[in-house]
Amino acid sequence: MKGNKKILVIGILSLAAVLFAAVNLIRYYGGWSSQNKISEDLYAIRGNIAFSEGEAKGTEQIPLRKKSVEADAGAGKTLEELQTLYPDVEFFTSGQLSDLDDEMRQINDNYCFFLTIPGTKIDYPVVQLDNAFYLDHDFYGKKNARGTVFLDAGCSSEDENLLLHGHHMKDGTMFAALAGFTKEDFRGKHKIAVVYRKDRMELYTFFAAATVDLTKEDSFLYEKLPKSDVERMDYLAALKENAFWYEEPGKDPEGMLVLSTCSYGSDDERLVVYAVRN
């Protein structure tokens, strides 16, 4: 009798384990399927707005942030000139940027701008609400473990320095591609990030990456972005000391894009990647 009870208990526990695994698998697949559908919808919207190869006009003026004049990509350069400088970047005219912004805001009024890292899966709308809701809600506001890339609540979307958060998903979505910056060959092939705003595009060049252990009392306070020239110099000095990769920016970086995700070293580690605005 005791043997039968033991077998029964083992059977019940085994069945419970199988059911638990099945539920998690269904949830994972549901989240993955939902995210794929969202990506397809958003790509379709962008595809309808963007230049097709046959429609691109080489003399079209592209609205880049005016400070870009100091760098290779200057405001007022033509599409043809910019495509020569940045062949992997998709350039939008003023009208197309405005249309993209309108389309995204019709779906979600928390929308800020669109972020792309050419050659990776990072091609997402960025939202802002607080630092909690979009951890587990998609761009349509529905529950999804993948969440949505979001701008830190401590930033304004027009700040010089922007901190974005995104999950490191094992299927390669969201900010998982940032793990590539731990490898030199990846960094050599992925140098540019693009921000598409309502009235302009901004190009950023990657220059640093760090792994931050949040459990350490003396960990790098990467989330405390600089607000003044003095703070910026101190921040960059601390970044250089803590970074596993750092290249001196070509000029005093007046605008930075800071991308944060889990490093998978532990629940309390963050991989943080930095780009300076051109």
Structural description of this entry:
By secondary structure, the protein is α+β, with helices and mostly antiparallel strands. The protein has a domain at 111-277: Sortase, Chain: A, CATH 2.40.260. Helix content is 32%, strand content 20%. The chain is built from 5 helices and 9 strands. The protein has helices spanning 2-49, 79-85, 94-107, 184-189, 229-242, and strands at 111-116, 123-127, 150-151, 161-165, 192-196, 201-213, 243-246, 256-262, 269-277. Strands 1, 2, 3, 4, 5, 6, 7, 8 and 9 form a 9-stranded mixed beta sheet that branches. A hairpin with a 4-residue loop joins β5 (192-196) and β6 (201-213). The N and C termini lie far apart (77 Å).
Main attributes?
about 280 residues; alpha+beta; Sortase, Chain: A; nine-stranded mixed beta sheet; 5 helices; 9 strands; globular
Tell me the total number of β-strands: 9
CATH class of the domain at 111-277: Mainly Beta
Helix/strand structural class? alpha+beta
Number of discrete helical segments = 5
Concise structural overview:
This protein is α+β, with helices and mostly antiparallel strands and 278 residues long.
Annotate the secondary structure layout.
Elements: H1 2-49, H2 79-85, H3 94-107, E1 111-116, E2 123-127, E3 150-151, E4 161-165, H4 184-189, E5 192-196, E6 201-213, H5 229-242, E7 243-246, E8 256-262, E9 269-277
Parallel strand pairs: 4-8
Antiparallel strand pairs: 1-2, 1-5, 3-4, 5-6, 6-7, 6-9, 8-9
